[in-house]
Amino acid sequence: xxxLTEYESKKLLSKYGIPVTKxxxxxxxxxxxxxxxQIGFPVAMKIVSKEIxxxxxSGCVLLNIGGxxxxxxxxxxxxxxxxxxxxxxxxxxxxxxxxxxxxxxxIVGVKRDPQxxxxxxxxxxxxxxxxxxxxxxxxxxxxxxDAINMIKEIKGYKILKGFRxxxxxxxxxxxxxxxxxxxxxxxxxxxxxxxxxxxxxxEKGVVAVDARILLNDSTC
Amino acid sequence: xxxxxxxxxxxxxxxxxxRNKEKWGHIILKNIIKGGYSGNIYPINPKETxxxxxKCYPSVLDVPDDIDxxxxxxxxxxxxxxxxxxxxKGVKGLVITSAGFSEVGKEGSIREKQVMDLVKKYKMRMIxxxxxxxxxxxxxxxxxxxxxxxxxxxxxxxTQSGTLGLALMDSIINIGLGLNKVVSVGNxxxxxxxxxxxxxxxxxxTNTIIMYVESIKNGREFMEVAKKIKKPIIAIKSGRxxxxxxxxxxxTGSMAGSDDIYTAAFKQVGVIRAKTIEELFDVxxxxxxxxxxxxxxxxxLTNGGGAGILAADYCEEVGLEVVxxxxxxxxxxxxxxxxxxxxxxxxDTVGFANYKLFKNAIEILLSEEEVSGLIxxxxxxxxxxxxxxxxxxxxxxxxxxxxxxxxxxxEDLNNAIKLLKNNNIPTYSLPESAAxxxxxxxxxxxxxxxxx
Lengths: 220, 452
Description:
The complex is a heterodimer.
Chain A: E1 2-4, H1 6-15, E2 23-26, H2 29-39, E3 43-48, E4 61-65, H3 68-85, E5 93-98, E6 104-113, E7 117-124, H4 127-130, E8 135-139, H5 144-153, H6 157-160, H7 171-187, E9 191-201, E10 206-208, E11 211-215
Antiparallel strand pairs in A: 1-11, 2-5, 3-4, 3-5, 6-7, 6-9, 7-8, 9-10, 9-11
Chain B: H1 4-7, E1 11-15, H2 24-34, E2 40-44, E3 50-51, E4 54-55, E5 69-72, H3 76-89, E6 93-96, H4 106-121, E7 125-127, E8 133-136, E9 141-144, E10 152-159, H5 163-175, E11 179-184, H6 193-201, E12 208-213, H7 219-228, E13 233-237, H8 251-255, H9 258-269, E14 272-273, H10 277-289, E15 297-302, H11 305-317, E16 321-322, H12 327-336, E17 347-348, H13 355-367, E18 373-379, H14 386-394, E19 403-408, H15 414-422, E20 427-428, H16 431-448
Parallel strand pairs in B: 1-2, 1-5, 5-6, 6-7, 10-11, 10-12, 12-13, 13-14, 15-16, 15-17, 15-18, 18-19, 19-20
Antiparallel strand pairs in B: 3-4, 8-9, 8-11
Helix pairs in contact in B: 3-4, 6-7, 7-9, 10-16, 11-16, 12-13, 13-14, 14-15
């Protein structure tokens, strides 16, 4: 099985029209600073390594980096933390990416089921999915009708519709992402699992902030 | 190839028919005879000349007549040989009850494949192996281990579990649910759920399909077929495996358990999933007898306020709207209701119940555009004849709106309930079941919108 890194996963999503965070992989502090300036502060910094899959648990993610000095310091901290938590892991660099401000976290995923094939999941991010099990599923390929129903079906739909006077979030863009993910699952037949977590939904537009993909090596 | 040869056979052979009363080969033959099957029956057993008064043949090849269906009730290692004979004879379909195939491991799987090769070679169709048989009440065929066939009806039942299937049949007989065809699918080596769904969809004697599912072999194929079927399908699925047994790579992997996926797949193709066996039967009864409501607006008529409120609560819970009646409707109701009765929905006759009162109230409610479905709840009071109230419903049945009855009380009600059921008014003993049954009609109606 092959794990695609966050960077590779997002490249793939982007190819299918799913908006992703602006980002570059830096191999040294000089590049890191240059990329950060190019993207604009604040930025997020994350270790890129196929061997470190739970980045935030091992101190391999830094958020809201506000200036050049912090980028420099952060680069070294990340390398140190990675070496401490997963010794001897091969590091591919540090991902410098834009910080997405505001919006609401959702999760979009794919899983391949032995009986039904690819299944698409949607839910609100964080505790909504994990604690309240508030998610919806459909077997791929899904239609627009299915995608809309998937979003309406979760209890958290009210939040997306704009709760307590908040403006409505961009549900149409979520529908587009679900349809794109369905397309990915159909076209990449060795895709086993995919997570876009979080997909941040804003009042206008969505951004895939983190993603991971698991591929089966033998195409069957 | 069509399944008619199996499910509507003109002529049946029982291979492995036995004189020994404890053997399946005896029980099944006896059930076919006792059930009053209208076609010819040929017991097959090389060691006997006659069983249960019917001439016995050494092999199907010796039978002078054509054979549509052969029920095979012999030990697994002997099955191949008789399947080959059936093929040579030109038998159309097989029901293989023998166990000892893919359900017991590798050796059995090989054996099952050999049988399948023969079935294909001779262009036959097969139910099983490891099935408890089939029933078709329209030709009075009970080729199963069930000692008693169900009443005749329009619901057909596909069951995966053998023994539970049998137990469920007993419950069905007990509650008097009428069935048309029953198929215990066994290992599904040849005939799958999707084949049966396709067959039942065009079967003029079936209007509702119920399923007991443990697993579906080819989920995609099942979905493709189920999506096209406009007759209601209600399924109960066992095996609620926990979501994410193993530590999965992704959130999706750990959250979406196989049971959730079944729920999603069913919903996606318009299969109603019943949570309990009781619900499976309740909902099937409503769907097989009632027209679909145009929307979710219902009226509740009752002689017991408490039951009416309970029913209203359940209605709201399952997505039905206990409709606000218009002034005009309320005025019409007030003209016929007793003094302190409530013309607000749920309509409460405050204990009064007689034929005329109920008939008038039902007619008014059904005639109003704002009411799309009616739930009539009768709570038994000693002085009332429950048959009168049942007749009030039956005598007003001229509309194309669904009516669900809820009769609450003890044995006194049995005759009235029977009368209602015999006249296709689904009757339940609890308000929640009645509300749920009405809601299922709406669910199916909504499903029909995307059925292709």
